[in-house]
Amino acid sequence: MNRIAAAIVGGYLFASSGGALLSALNGPGSDAMLGGALLGLALYAPAIIWAFATRSAKRAWAGLLGASFSLAVLTAVADATGAAA
């Protein structure tokens, strides 16, 4: 049950963080936001697969939360520096 929660919740966090980063890198506008959201959805399936492929649920949580946090930090840096502008 813990692994399923890691796949659903952790995978969603990872996918949304990845989508936010891709949107930040693509620049302002609705097309960039839509592209980031679609690419974020493409990250969701590998995150779920990875959650079930790890040796333990604890490792799945740690990997997904760590990767999500890293992507969130990169998104904040991209927004602060105006990487897309």
Automatic annotation (TrEMBL):
Transmembrane segment boundaries: 34-53, 60-78
Domain of life: Bacteria
The entry's keywords: Membrane, Transmembrane, Transmembrane helix
Organism, as annotated: Duganella dendranthematis
InterPro entries according to UniProt: DUF3649
Name recorded for this polypeptide: DUF3649 domain-containing protein
Keyword Transmembrane helix: yes
